[in-house]
Specification:
The chain is of the alpha/beta class. It has helices at about 10-20, 30-40, 80-95, 100-105, 120-125, 145-155, 215-220, 370-375, 390-400, 400-415; strands spanning about 1-5, 25, 40-45, 60-65, 135-140, 160-165, 180-185, 195-200, 210-215, 235, 270-275, 310-315, 320-325, 340-345, 365. The protein has a domain at about 1-205 and about 400-415: Rossmann fold (3-Layer(aba) Sandwich), CATH 3.40.50. About 25% of the residues lie in helices and about 15% in strands.
């Protein structure tokens, strides 16, 4: 079996399934487990830190681990950096068969910090049976020193090991998400996959196939030259309803799930309603009775839409990442009101005499949808996210991009993965 620790909503698992292998995910979050179940992914709902390794001993071919990043992430308080010496000590002790987690945990400033040491508990127990054959682990870049410690220990156990930082955009993910990666194998030289994309495209040559330009948000979302986000209101209710993750009063959004490759278009729900500032004065104060029914023609968003370009702002903070839709997104993270991702309209550059024309009133910022966020993480448009909007966005922000996972998994699963081969079927 392939064991997936801290499996989340299925980033690694979806990639493995596309490559023909089904892993077993260990995950605690109930909504991530429901998402996995709806996607047909094998899951044990449990606390990874409490679950015994014995059921997997002698049966585990590969081990994947994505410990929670909240303690280390720049989006949080980063108490994991202060706890790092304790985590290193836990890894050293677990590698020697000593379980000192309880005493070390009591000294941690963030109880989640020590979860980064949990894979070593599994690795030590499995090593006694000569397994696993290969190991893949990922975390935020600040965890790289810890991965280097893991690599040093694994080498003494007969593994070839590599650690480093990979940028998801270099592998066709429409997001410049950087992650610390550990690759280890008993049967092959550990090395990162060859990048397939680059910020500046490289032509094919005698020395290789070259690299395509990074995938832009517009390309991933299927937007053409004149496409744009459409302001909508989604009526609530149903198992996917619930409170908004960011109660800032900004409008909800829903794109038409325009997709490329084998991504499928999904029809709008029957209760979808639309409204626009062009509906007249006081549009923002209109109540539900004034919303346009789903079977009525949609309002014109703006007659000057072609004069505006769209950028994605990653959060409401002063240092927020702002990227044009013709670029990859910055790292997407959610779960806090300050982390609201918004599409912002900006005037397109114009030349005279067009430059003398008034571009009109700028469209209001509109929030990214869960479908859009999932696609920018390279989940299929139809991935069956479970939970209310806050729970769904939290799962998406914490997930590992399936497309990058596929590139990392392919050599160990005996699969050949070309840059054109991996399509995320809905």
């Amino acid at each position: 079996m392939v064991l997936d620790l801290f499996a989340g909503p299925g980033g690694w698992s979806h990639a493995a399934a596309v490559l023909g292998v089904q892993d077993i995910g260990l995950e605690w979050d109930p909504w991530a487990c429901r998402t996995r179940a709806a996607a047909g992914l094998l899951t044990i709902r449990t606390d990874v830190a409490m679950y015994p390794v014995r059921p997997f001993t002698g049966k585990t071919w590969g081990l994947i681990a994505s410990p929670p990043c909240q303690a280390w992430s720049m989006a949080g308080k980063r108490l994991g950096l202060l706890d790092q010496p304790l985590v290193h000590q836990a890894v050293t002790d677990l590698a020697a068969g000593r379980d000192t987690r309880a005493s070390l945990l009591s000294a941690c400033r963030d109880e989640r910090s020590l979860l980064a040491a949990e894979p070593m508990r599994y690795l030590h127990a499995l090593h006694q049976a000569g397994q696993p054959e290969w190991v893949l682990m990922e975390e935020v870049p600040d965890v790289l020193p810890l991965w280097r410690q893991y690599a040093t220990i694994l080498r003494t156990w007969g593994f070839s090991a590599w650690t480093g930082i990979l940028n998801a955009a270099d592998y066709g993910v429409p997001q410049t998400r950087k992650r610390a990666i550990l690759i280890a194998s008993r049967v092959r030289t550990a090395a990162p996959p060859e990048p397939t994309h680059a910020a500046v495209p490289e032509p094919e040559s005698l020395f290789g196939p070259g690299r395509r330009r990074w995938v832009s948000m517009a390309e991933a979302l299927g937007w053409g030259a004149t496409d744009r986000p459409v302001p909508t209101v989604c009526a609530g209710g149903g198992p996917g309803g619930g409170p908004e993750p960011f109660p800032s009063g900004s409008r909800k959004t829903l794109t038409d799930a325009r997709t490329r490759g084998t991504w499928k278009t999904h029809p709008a729900p029957a209760n979808l309603v639309l409204r626009s500032r062009r509906d007249g004065p006081g549009w923002a104060q209109h109540g539900p009775r004034d919303n346009r029914p789903a079977d009525a023609p949609a309002p014109t968003f703006t007659a000057e839409a072609h004069r505006w370009s769209w950028t994605l702002r990653s959060n409401n903070q002063a240092h927020a990442t702002v990227r044009s839709s013709d670029e990859p997104a910055g790292t997407l993270f959610f779960g806090h009101r300050a982390n609201e991702c918004l599409w912002i309209a900006e005037p397109r550059p114009r030349t005279a005499p067009a430059a003398e024309q008034d571009p009109g009133e700028a469209p209001d910022p509109i929030r990214i949808t869960a479908v859009e966020a999932g696609i920018l993480q390279t989940f299929p448009a139809g991935h069956p996210w479970a939970g209310n909007k806050g729970q769904v966005f939290g799962q998406i922000g914490n997930a590992f991009p399936p497309r990058l996972a596929a590139h990392l998994l392919a050599p160990h699963l005996g699969a050949t993965l070309d840059r054109d081969d991996f399509t995320l079927a809905a």
